[in-house]
Specification:
Blueprint (H helix, E strand, L loop, with lengths): L1 E5 L3 H13 L3 E5 L2 H10 L4 E5 L7 H11 L6 E5 L4 H9 L4 E4 L4 H20 L3 E3 L2 E4 L4 E4 L2 E3 L3 H12 L4 E3 H9 L6 H19 L4 E4 L3 E4 L10
Parallel strand pairs: 1-2, 1-3, 3-4, 4-5
Antiparallel strand pairs: 6-7, 7-8, 8-9, 10-12, 11-12
Bound molecules: calcium ion.
Length: 231
Amino acid sequence: MHILIIEDDMAIAANLYDFLESHGHSVDAAADGAVGLHLAATQQFDAILLDLGLPGMSGLALCQKLRNELRIDTPILMLTARDTLEDKLTGFEHGADDYLVKPFALKEVEARLSALHKRHSGRVANRTLEVGNLTYDPKTFSIRFENKDVKLPPKCVRLLALMMSEPGRVFSRKELESEAWEDTQETSDTLRSHMHVLRRALSRVGGYDPIETVHGIGYCLTISRDKPHQD
Ligand code: CA
């Protein structure tokens, strides 16, 4: 994971930094709220460790700014010396995801961060994908194109979902195969035939084929995220 530590106590920050880095995480650290906020707003982190009592901007104020003003939903694990229920509730109200009271075990910090990261990734993976007039709801496995339902076999759904995650990007055959077949080995003829089924179904329902073959490389979804298709 890529983790941001925002903590003004140098000894605690160094302990966290060394422990997390030695466990294979990439770590950035800030000693005050302003630097922490800047890092959190400009870089992509998997989780943030945030001290409640910081000089300048408090942990709660930072949390609130991230959530309400910057709309950043990176999981936040709040650290605090104060062991009262009230602080805990205030932290959650301001957008923290979890809470640890100092002194804490480093292993516990890592376990909580992993759990938050997993939960957050799960939520992201469960979000409905929308690309122009094409939508995919992973919770129901359903696809709609030009406001009509598209019936597809599961492998075709996985292929399409992968391409919808980055419209306009060319996906190689290998990437598509490993997404659709997971562990099973199948030949490229099978990918081609699933692509054919997928494209035919989309064309039938929507009146056009939004997938393009990029010869020698793979396939690409040609509709853009916000503009509906225009001929
Ligand atoms: Ca502090």
